[in-house]
Amino acid sequence: MVSFKELHEADFSGVSEAAEAWAGVARTLTALDGRVTKDLTGTAQRAGWQGAAADEATKTLQAIDGDFKQASAVATALAAIMKTAAADFAAARRDLDSALHDAQADDLTVSADGTVSWSLPKGSKNEHGSKTKGEDLWGPDWSLKAGAGDPLGSLMKQMKSDPAAAQEFLDPSRNKNLTYLLKDRSWPNQDLEGKLSAD
Question: E-assigned strands of the chain?
Fold first, then answer.
């Protein structure tokens, strides 16, 4: 599997060039196959040559013709494989670049090995050791501040676009993030939601 660093730093122009080269080889072999059929095999057959030597020559020429056909088919298949690989690599690189752009827009930091981290918004960490649920990470009043957004909003958006990262982030065997989000965190307007559902 390609690592984050390898995909981020890779130059895929060589793959595209190889695909073009194999396509050229395929075209050349296809043209040669046509010439073998027309100029060698066909000429010998049209000449009316007969006898044991003619039979052996025809057999040899037909084998050569078959070799050219097979080589042409292999080169054509390799060209198609290389072209598909070049397109897949380019698409993967575009997806990665897009994800990095989104992470930057959401104030997330992506390290050289692909690890994503973020900083708590200033004033959001509880420095006084309150025992209220969720206050160990974000105090209960942050959502009441004018214009304040949920500090987890960017993270949730990123996980929505990357299911593998979400699975790793919420894996109970690796960390306690899921428990925190489901049980410990004070969510904005959670009291209001309880009242609305009761009504």
Answer: 109-110, 116-117
Decide: 174 and 168 in contact? Cβ < 8 Å.
yes
State residue 80's pLDDT score.
92
Rounded to whole angstroms, the Cα distance separating 159 from 168 reads 10
How is the chain split into domains, by residue range? Answer: 4-110, 120-198
What percent helix, strand, coil does the chain show, rounded to 5? 65, 0, 35
**CB-based burial label for 127 (10 Å; 0-12, 13-18, 19+):** exposed
The length of the chain, given as a count of residues? 199
Region of poorest pLDDT, from 20-34, 40-54, 128-142: 128-142
Q: Which of 83-87, 91-95, 141-145, 165-169 has the lowest mean pLDDT?
A: 141-145
Distance (Å, rounded) from C-alpha 58 to C-alpha 98? Answer: 60
CATH topology of domain 4-110: Helix Hairpins (1.10.287)
